[in-house]
Amino acid sequence: MPTFSAPDGTLLAYRVQGSGVPLVCLPGGPTDSHYLGGLGGLSAHRRLIMPDPRGTGRSAAPEDLSSYRCDRLVDDVEALRRHLGLPRLDLLGHSAGANIAVQYAARHPDGIGKLALIGPGTRAVGIEITGQQRRELALLRSGEPWFPAAFAALEALIAGTGGDFEAIGPFFCGRWDEAAREQYEAGRPVNMAAVAGFGAEGAFEPAGTRAALARHGAPVLLLTGEFDLNSPPCSTAEFAELLPAATFLVQPGAGHYPWVDDPGRFVATTAAFLG
Fold first, then answer.
1. Does the predicted TM-score (pTM) go above 0.90?
2. Residues 6+ apart with CB under 8 A from 56
3. Residue 254: which of 176, 151, 143, 187 has the closest Cα?
4. Residue 123: which of 31, 233, 190, 205 has the closest Cα?
5. What domains are there in the chain, each with its CATH number?
6. What is the DSSP letter of 18?
7. Percent of the chain with pLDDT strictly greater than 70
8. Is 148 exposed, middle or buried, given 0-12, 13-18 or 19+ CB atoms closer than 10 A?
9. What b/e sequence results for 170-188 when a residue is b if at least 16 CB atoms lie within 10 Å of its CB, and e otherwise?
């Protein structure tokens, strides 16, 4: 895997798939970018540049654990842009990676082209997703054979009385088959220090980010799955309202990994947006 040096000297790795105009793809988690795969075939339309966040995959762990903070990870994206020699980035952020992507857009408006936010996290812009919103979305799956056990685990997590993240996995996928199970497991973080540090105090400054995004005139796609428990359509729609040139789309029948649930639809939609 190719590597580049972060501003603090941490050696970071990235994957490359496909050919053509580069698209930097930021994974969620924070976790190894390998779970993105080829984004359902998007690599046939763009050259996907997929960095492993510091401390995950083949990227080195930093000496300074505070550099796991979301706002600090923005500096790694800018270092990657410079390493690639690109005047500006087309940027895709999935899940928690969307928080990095929008902070990058806020801080480097001249360094970004098109922005695609897939199943986006909303912490960077201060949008809270309530337990009731997740519960109502989960109830749409009540006819599924796995629903009783998964819903009981979800209720426990919402109530703060325990619960098992593995048990709620079906809610993150449009269908719960072997491929979905593998995708869910592949996307789960393993570096808990990186997870804890990502949202540490000072990681987000929603008011400033919102103000900068209100001036962001470049095109932005916000796409989420109809059943995405992590990034419900209601919160993603609220996110889209913050951006003057936003396109908000809900992919029918999809969960948190829309490129797995219906790769043809996902690729057609995303490639058309990217141009």
1. yes
2. 29, 30, 31, 32, 33, 189, 190, 191, 194
3. 176
4. 205
5. 3-126+190-274 (3.40.50.1820)
6. S
7. 100
8. exposed
9. bbbbbebeeebeebbeebe
